[in-house]
Amino acid sequence: MTAKLILGTEIREQILEEITAEVKELKEEYGKVPGLVTILVGENPASISYVTLKIQTAHRVGFKEVQDSQPVDISEADLLALIDKYNKDDSINGILVQLPIPKHINEKKVLNAIDPDKDVDGFHPVNVGRLMIGGSEVKFPPCTPAGIQEMIVRAGVETKGAEVVVVGRSNIVGKPIANMMLQKGPGANATVTIVHTGTKNMEAHCKRADILIVAAGVPGLVKPEWIKPGACVIDVGVNRVGEKISEKTGKKVAILKGDVDFDAAKEIAGSITPVPGGVGPMTITMLMKNTLKSMKFQLGIA
Ligand code: GUN
């Protein structure tokens, strides 16, 4: 059996089209478009390329986008003052500080300074709490877990009563996706297990999974024999395992490998996400969705 591929690249296009259409309608009705500011501190090349992609995507869906680049030696106080400026700016619905930030600045202080009602990353403790409560309390689910849930739903995979096993307990993927999948409601209502480096028999847990979500950051960690035949496998791993010359651009690019042995796993799973082209494209897409949602909250229509 060869698994059905769940392609983030395709789902992204559907969602971005939906967002573009809604932005147009809201602009006609309310004379306003969602505003997103991305704050970049320093010149980390990976961060520059992420931020550029976020800005390009925001532009594509019709948002007001602001890229605010700051020098690597900006003081913590100045960065906090900048965040405060955007907190008070009514034309800005989403504020994102690209991580990592330089060591002389306290990351926790910075994330906590963002108005929770503009925290489209969903990293502020208030939004983490809202996610934990679930239901109508949730404002901004963090983007990667939101993307994973969206992929599972759009792939038509039944979640109600499903055994979901999450590999990895990070604050940005493992813990939130586990939390989201156990909530009552559509696209969730599952029985959830989290396995991690302290788990005694990871393989035995994975073998039970109807939906296996792997976010460990260890290339090839999940072996094909760990996968239940017909299971839905979501591979969140993006591991740089080498470099190659791109056929398209002639430039050096990273060779990416997931946490799952894809070639063997696709012969056992019912559906599976590839790396690259799986979960990756969903993160920025869900950032756009959260920013649109933020403006709808501001307008009192969400
Ligand atoms: N750095 C890498 N991924 C992310 C993300 O999703 N949000 C922010 N703010 N920084 C990041």
List the helices and strands and how they pair.
Blueprint: E1 4-5, H1 8-30, E2 35-41, H2 45-60, E3 64-70, H3 76-87, E4 94-97, H4 107-113, H5 125-133, H6 143-154, E5 163-167, H7 174-182, E6 191-195, H8 202-207, E7 211-214, E8 232-235, E9 239-245, E10 252-257, H9 262-265, E11 271-272, H10 280-299
Parallel strand pairs: 1-11, 2-3, 2-4, 5-6, 5-7, 7-8, 8-11
Antiparallel strand pairs: 9-10
Helix pairs in contact: 1-10, 2-10, 6-7, 6-10
The protein binds guanine (GUN).
Guanine is lined by residues 50, 96-99, 121, 143, 283.
Nearest-integer average pLDDT: 97
Ligand inventory reads: guanine
Oligomer: single chain
Gross morphology is: globular
β-strand percent reads 15-25%
Major sheet characteristics: 6 strands, parallel
Radius of gyration: 20 Å
Order of helices and strands: EHEHEHEHHHEHEHEEEEHEH
Placed side by side, the strands forming the largest sheet appear as 1-11-8-7-5-6
- Give the low-confidence spans: none
Q: How far is the first residue's CA from the last residue's CA?
A: 43 Å
Total strand segments: 11
SSE class: alpha/beta
Total number of helices: 10
Helix content: 25-40%
Task: Offer a few descriptive terms.
alpha/beta, globular, binds guanine, 302 residues, 10 helices, 39% helix
